[in-house]
Request: fold
Amino acid sequence: MEEYLKTASAGKRGDKIRSDCYVEIKLRKTGKNKLDIKSKVSVMYGNDIRRSAEDTIEFFELKHADILIEDYGALPSALTARIETAVKRLFPKLQKEYLPEFNKNNTDATTKDRLRRSRLYLPGNEPKFYPNAGLHKPDGIILDLEDSVAPSEKDAAQFLVRNSLRAVNFYGAERMVRINQLPKGIEDLKFIVPHNIHVILIPKCESASQVLDVEKEVLRLKKEFTIKNEIYFMPIIESAIGVIKAFEIASASIYNCALAIGLEDYTADIGTQRTDEGKESFFARTFLVNAAKAAGIQAIDTVYSDVSNMEGLRDSVIEAKRLGFEGKGCIHPRQIKVIHEAFLPTSDEIDRAKKIVLAFNEAKTKGIGVVSLGSKMIDAPVVKRAKKIIDIAISHKVLSADWIENQ
Amino acid sequence: MKLVKNAASRLVPVEVNGEKQIPYKGFGIYKPKGRMAAPPIRSCADYPADGNKVVKSLKDALKKAGLKDGMTISTHHHLRNGDVLTNYLFDIIKEMGIKNIRWFPSASFPCHQHLIKYLEDGTIHHIEGSMNGPLGRFTSEGKMKGIGVLRSHGGRYQSIQDGEVHIDIAVIASPTADPFGNATGDRGKSACGLLGFALGDSEYADNVIVVTDNLVPFPCYPWQIQGNNVDSVVQIDSLGDPAKIVSGTTEVTKSPDRLLIAEYVAQFFEDSGIMKEGFSFQAGAGGTNLAFAVYLKEKMKARGIKARFIRGGSTKYLVEMLEEGLTDYILDGQTFDLEGVRSMRENLGHVNTSPFTSYNYHSKGNFASIVDAVVLGATEVDLNFNANVVTHSDGYLLHGIGGWQNCLFSKCTILAIPSFRDRIPVIVDEVTTLVGPGELIDVVITERGTAINPRRKDLIKALKGSSLPIKSIREIYEEVIELCGGAPAKPKVNKDNVVAVIKWVDGTLLDSVFQVI
Reply:
């Protein structure tokens, strides 16, 4: 038996594993690297896997190593993330990063006020969910570094999420990451800020200073890596103290785009349980909506956790909309369509929006600076909101795209 | 081995297992002439007047049938992965010291890996039917003595009728039978639903043995197999494992991506105008297809539309549609769950069909081409819409053809498939094995987009303005290749060793499967 100086492994193995791989590296005192690859797709991609493994190993200047890769159809960016995880478990001080190319479809920037009706949570250490998530058309996709990742896999998730932000096609969904609860979450930022992120979710947020800590590190990283795109924050309120400080948190940073509530932890914190009726969280939710609106940002509701109950989800979204929420979290792609439909503007809302847009157009053609509807003056944000309602109505086919011509 | 290029530009052998072959000539061109094969003349004077054909054991029945080396023995896949009888049958054949059997199953299942030892020791010479799972692997590695022949369900009937396959002995697993040989699959502890796949065998084989674990007094009525075609009846303890014969319940897929595909298929039915009063469709029992049926049902209910008939693979979802009045008929080809079996017994609108009525090339027309739209799967589809259902991209034979080729004759053939599985592209530049010519495949629906065959200008026009993500097949291909990190390498095969051939529905050779190295 050969003696090894050090060994480390990363990834997953077993018959049920899909779109992932297992990497094991054993360091000897001397000798050449030995690379052993077993892959479910060896006929189709065996050479490719070998090339990418060799390239990664050379990049990290790994020597005297026995490297085993058991591959279950991992996509390239997941494969190299797993290798990097194993390498850095051997050499934690190694600074170099093996980065995949940016996906050319993900060049879009985001805006502070874009639609955030649905945001789909994906566990940060499960690559099989990523390539198709955007096809379900959520407004946002959250790669989660927090609760869905086992404590022992936090490092693995950082590399995987970093690579996925760069390489995975999000199909136009806003790219979000939920970092860990602070202070640990600060360490996550260097894995996401330089890699094409739109929104950072700050969990269990309880004070303005936490938002400012994130802001400070984000601005530092943006400068270091010359990142030009705006990066926004969505603090999540999940405790009694967080609710009380909601306005302070919401107005802490100009980069806050929304304030979200997480009810599982909140109800535990106030010593009760979540019910369908939701009386226990009514105060927190309405208070949070008020805080967000007072700070001029969006209010986003918690997730609906019964994935098989679509009626319950629909009711819950309609209720959230009535309370003033503009978005809902989801944990299963099948929830997205239901959420979008439930957030659809009502026919009254559409009628009013049409009137506002027509009044605005008329004022523009006449060269009048002030838009008015009847005796009421219409502010610019109201016009913007009306246009958004029209866009949503058209995209859901409740309003024809050429409605203006048919007036 | 001499190979020639057929009309689909695929290399096929001129001779298979010592018999001359006709290469594929194109779709609807080859029409054999002459007279149909016919069974020998029988006289009822040779059979017991009291109608009791019960023989003590399967071995006795085989002896009585004159079993000898080199014969063709047929079995059927009604018992699916719960089949114990076929394995038991070959245990006896082995014990009798018989060699070089041509096994002619309507399909094989993973449970039949028991037979690998008989393929190795020469009891079975080769398989003509399907080579699934472990049998496919065995065949692909070049270990079978003869060349495997894969046929569709309709092609199987065709090959019996035009004399390409002469069945010496047919062994028909029958969940209920009487001593005269009338038999059915809709009752008994091993109830499997329909026995339609055994119909041709019962009519054309030289000798027909019905094996049952539920012998009832004459008459077994209603019957699916007629006793007048049966030579002997054998009673055994158990035909198989009921839990694996039919699933208690078939379930729709839980995969969000498959559900998305199913939803797109249902939307395609609506947006294309296929879903209209009195329409018809066929969908299999895979999880995606079941989900499609559920979504389509919602749309039919919402619009108040009723189908005239549904061809299936019956399942509880189709039975619900029948019982809720959303279709007049289920034309059942095989029965996948207990609800299907129950409905077959109870509902007049649940009709038993067979490959003769639905798929056969030598019938005077068949049902498959009357169906408005069919939803199928595939292991690969290429840029010319050619499709594969028998091998995977690694070159291994893993599935049979089933009724898949025959269903391509529907007015609109839809393949509902993921664009890739793990890191394996399903949309490829060229299929590993050609099983369905692209001219018969109209629409490919994936989670990444819906591609309409450019030949179907009518469908392209009908789908203008649809919110479905319509793309060209090449666009989907390029997206998948980028995702998977480049085009997949092709399997290394030994082009000198054909291990199996793919028959087209008319009996010509469509493609070859080569030994994997």
